[in-house]
Write the structure tokens for this entry.
Amino acid sequence: MRIRHLPDHLVNQIAAGEVIERPAAAVKELVENSIDADATQINVTIREGGKNYIQIQDNGIGMSPAELEACVERHATSKLPDDDLVHINHLGFRGEALPSIGSVSNLSIRSRASNAEDAWGIDVQSGQKSDPVPSAHPQGTTITVTDLFHTTPARLKFLKSERAEYGAVKDVLTRLAMAFPHIGFKLTHNDKTSFDYRPQTQDLLQSSLKRLSAILGQEFEHNSVPVSAEREGVTITGFAGLPTLSRGTSQYQFLFVNGRPVKDRLILGCVRAAYSDLLHRDRHPVVALFLDLAPEDVDVNVHPAKTEVRFKDAGLIRGLIISALKHALLEGGQVTSQTISTQALSSLRPQTISGPALPVSRASSYPRYSNLALKEDSAPFQGFDQDFMPSSKTEDIYEAIEDTFTHPLGAARAQLHENYIIAQTEKGLVIVDQHAAHERLVYEKFKTQFHGGKVESQGLLVPEIVDLDDTDIQNLLSQKDLLQKLGLDIEAFGQGSISIQSVPAILGHKINFSDLIRDLVDEFREHKTTHGLEEKVNHILSTMACHGSVRSGRRLNAQEMNTLLRNMEQTPNSGHCNHGRPTYIELDLTDIEKLFGRR
Ligand code: ADP
Ligand code: MG
């Protein structure tokens, strides 16, 4: 066997195997070229998921005949003017996209350079390029790719269904559209417009938000908080969806590094960590985050398709992202999701009742909750933290609460079904889920106590004995020190039991301890090794908070309700419970009036 130099077209085909693995990859490379060429409008037209036909049309700086000839040559690029692989300011730089695509398809380029009189074209058929020929084209470039992979049948075989390939093209283009809101992006598939995002003209932040909501839906605009932080020259900006806007998959997490869409595990991990406290494990937040840092601090050259990056100082990046997200969410924590109230409103829309009206007797047999709830003698809870809800009685409730309308969560007016507090605000009304709200309050208070040193603990007069199986006892006792710091003292007690000596004071002493212990046991069983200490602590606190909170079904008097509302206003993250469910929803008076046809 002899060593031989491979002919160019083969080298290009091999490179194409790496860079252009499917139609979406070709679209990505071509659209990135248009972006690098300063286009303000990019139109992408594909057929059969791009397998058959891809056309990219831009109004960028275009190419001269000489540039047309050069651009399809391997490693020819206008983007590395000074051999500097460190300061990469364009999306492209390898100079291999066009020759690679040309080697596995029929490629046709038409272009007119800025201020040039004439347009020119060049064709590449299976790696063979033609001479430039005069042609007709406005300023900018149109590149058409047909019969992709016809020279590499093996690759062709591995393409997925038309739908899947189309989905991948759409995903690629959507991510680029997020990163470049000032550029218009239009996608047409099989002659149908799939989207048409107009170029945004406001400042970057506003444009970015508008573009994101054009893509993710209006609800994102109203249910996200801006993220903005800087540390040692690294900046993070973007928008983080409120926990109540969460989705069932993590595919609505869009990450960009120096304007480049990436799918980076480090960053995804940071997002999960930042929300871990606010969302149930199988819910995922919606975020769009843009990380910008000096080109020398990030290596984008890890993979030819450039969706992975490597950071010089991963610790710095991690700390920055987590704290920026947590901070943003904290600020937004009291705002409950607007989507929820929109949902609530649409479900409240008056139904056209076609049947006979309800018989009077049935209607009037409904209990009058509002009166019930405001009765003076409603029994105060037992075992309930005084800080949250003093149970002292008020003389005249209406007088006492008149001035509380001005508070964000208003004045409590009624409790319905022993769980929902209805409060009147200046602009409308608020419905609070008392269990969810109280759970969040207890949890946040737990955390404050824990981070402030030690959780206050209260000894039990008679220790509680809980029977458990041996492994669970072992698991529990192995966490004894940690639990003690969290206010829970346990001891082994004979064979097959533990005794509880003292409990966190916040929980009161009327809760069901064996239920709590069993939940903790489950918690440990599930997360034996997977969590860091902080996450573990938060999970334990969250489990305990759930037990310590007012269960639904407890009747509250007006003052207790108002105390709960005031505490919510002062508590971070009080807009949602520990599982990401909202703790309250807000309805605007104008919306309510609309429901009744008054507006
Ligand atoms: P790279 O983008 O890595 O430089 P490509 O093979 O993708 O490599 O493109 C080669 C060159 O062709 C680019 O450097 C650029 O000068 C030119 N080019 C490609 N597409 C366009 C376009 N749409 N408008 C203007 N110039 C383009
Ligand atoms: Mg390129």
